[in-house]
Amino acid sequence: MSSPDNESDYEDDAFDFSGNDDDEDLDEETLFWQLLLLINPGDEETALHQFGRFRELREGADDDGEAIDTLQEVIDWTSGYRVEEGDTQSFIDSIAQLAARWNLQVDWGVEDPTDDEFLQSVDVPELMSTAHDRLREHGYTVWNRDTRDDTFAGWITLRRDDETMQAVAAALGIDIRPGSDAF
Questions:
Q1: pTM of the entire predicted model
Q2: Does residue 99 contact residue 106 with C-beta atoms inside 8 Å?
Q3: Per-residue exposure over 109-145, b if at least 16 CB sit within 10 Å of its own CB, e if not
Q4: I want to staple 182 with a disulfide (CB 3.0 to 4.6 A). Which of 81, 125, 129, 134 is the partner?
């Protein structure tokens, strides 16, 4: 198979993740695989491991709980974050761990982001916005999803994948926003 001669060869190849195209009906499992690839940029091995774990947990589940909750369990502290509403320390720690995958550190605007006084003066949405802004400078986007409870959860993707991330999330029925606009 030969490569296309130029970018114009791709114009009509836009993929519809909503499953509305009769020829391209994507099932939920395929969409979750795409999501894992997006939140593990350049690390297909981790995505594959997480996908296997996701499938295993979904098959072994007694009830048919939310698939996104199963995914969140699989990705926590490796490719995603989930913290309680007031747990600023855990948010900083989880974002630091996620950013370290790309040898990045978030500048929180203070010398010591673990200082109790600082942690008590901010909330998770403020920190999420800061992380979003700092990581955008390096080509990444912090996402947060509507958890419908008192937690904040999400992941980080490449900035260039923003539209694809929104399309995959919409197809899965996951309400997401950039970290600059927390739920």
A1: 0.83
A2: yes
A3: eeeebeeeebbeebebbebbbbbbebbeeeebbbbbb
A4: 125
Give the residue from 175, 153, 182 showing the smallest Cα distance to 83: 153
Helix axes 28-39, 162-172, angle to 10 degrees: 150
- 3-class DSSP state of 82: strand
Domain range summary for the chain, segments of one domain joined by +: 26-178
CA distance 101 to 40: 9
**pLDDT in 10s for each residue of the chain, 183 residues:** 333 333 333 333 344 444 444 434 579 999 999 999 999 999 999 999 999 999 999 987 666 568 999 999 999 999 999 999 999 999 999 999 999 999 999 999 999 999 999 999 999 999 999 999 999 999 999 999 999 999 999 999 999 999 999 999 999 999 999 999 999
